[in-house]
Amino acid sequence: MHMLATQAWTILFWRSLFGAVFVGGFALLRGEPVLIWETLAIGRLGLVASILSSAAMLAFIPALRHTSVANVALIFATLPLVIGIISRLLVDEPLSARSAAACVGVLLGAAVIFWGSAYASEASLVGDMLAVVMTVAMALMAVALRLYQGRSVLGVVMLSNIMTMIFAALMSTSLTVSLREVAILACFGLFQMALGLILFSVGARSLPSAQVALITTLEAPLSPLWVWLFFDDRPKILTVLGGALILCVMASYLFAEGRQPSGSGNLDGDAKRDGIR
């Protein structure tokens, strides 16, 4: 977002448009011309997952515009625990004592980040809240996808991009962008929107909810690092302290969870049955 001066709604429109185009192209390459029918006949849980994915997209760009990349990435790093808590509340998956203890540590780290944002400016605090909305929406999406029994997740990804594109078009005052911005947004739509959502959706359906976001925690240290190196956007000291606490808690939690048996003996069968693997 540091490379774009365009308003958030315009960015959301174009990257969602490119995301939908790339997902459609991916479906055609795989020989799935029925993608549109799958999108229309997506089912209740698939529709819920699409709406939640769209809500996360709509919160993401404004969050980056109001607060730092580091704050957004570190708040998003709490995703595995948020998924675990929501799974416990909605589908009665067990929440271990280890998970509960990790929640306390993560909340303390998040409190430090929020304290730093509140001290900095009201806009930063708004950005942090939007990052929380994005994280909760993604967690709910992961749980919905875990329960979703449709043949392919391509329809979910396609529909979420279309929803975001339409909403952004209605909210934007202008959709005009330069050729340079089109190229940047096309890359954004391909690598983050299309490929990223497809891989996340497949993972959410293939793994138990408590393990869905293991790899996503890599975004927390890497995103601020790239922005720091390329744009000299240095995170605040309270963001560093709160983020260090979150990452230490999450690393310990995920390491301990990874050593436990998955308890999922049907993953290979699920993978063969689903449309994308």
Report on the architecture of this protein.
With 277 residues, this protein is mainly alpha-helical. The chain has one domain (8-260). The chain has twelve helices and no strands. Helix 3 (44-66) packs across helix 8, helix 4 (69-76) packs antiparallel against helix 10 (219-231) and helix 4 (69-76) packs parallel to helix 11 (237-258). The longest helix has 28 residues, at 179-206. Residues 263-277 have low confidence and may be disordered. It holds the Pfam family EamA.
What distinguishing features does this structure have?
277 residues, mainly alpha, 12 helices, globular, disordered C terminus
Reconstruct the topology from this structure:
Layout: H1 8-29, H2 35-40, H3 44-66, H4 69-76, H5 79-90, H6 97-120, H7 122-147, H8 154-171, H9 179-206, H10 219-231, H11 237-258, H12 267-273
Helix pairs in contact: 1-3, 1-8, 1-9, 3-7, 3-8, 4-7, 4-10, 4-11, 5-7, 6-7, 6-11, 7-9, 8-9
- Class based on secondary structure composition and strand pairing: mainly alpha
What percentage of the residues does DSSP assign to strands (E)? under 5%
Overall spatial form: globular
Straight-line distance between termini: 31 Å
Radius of gyration: 19 Å
* Number of helices, where a helix is a run of at least 4 consecutive DSSP H or I residues: 12
Task: Report the average pLDDT across residues.
Answer: 75
Oligomer: single chain
Unreliably modeled segments: 263-277
Number of domains: 1
The SSE string, one letter per element, is HHHHHHHHHHHH
The beta-strand count equals 0
Helix fraction by DSSP (H/I, runs of at least 4): over 70%
How is the main sheet built? none
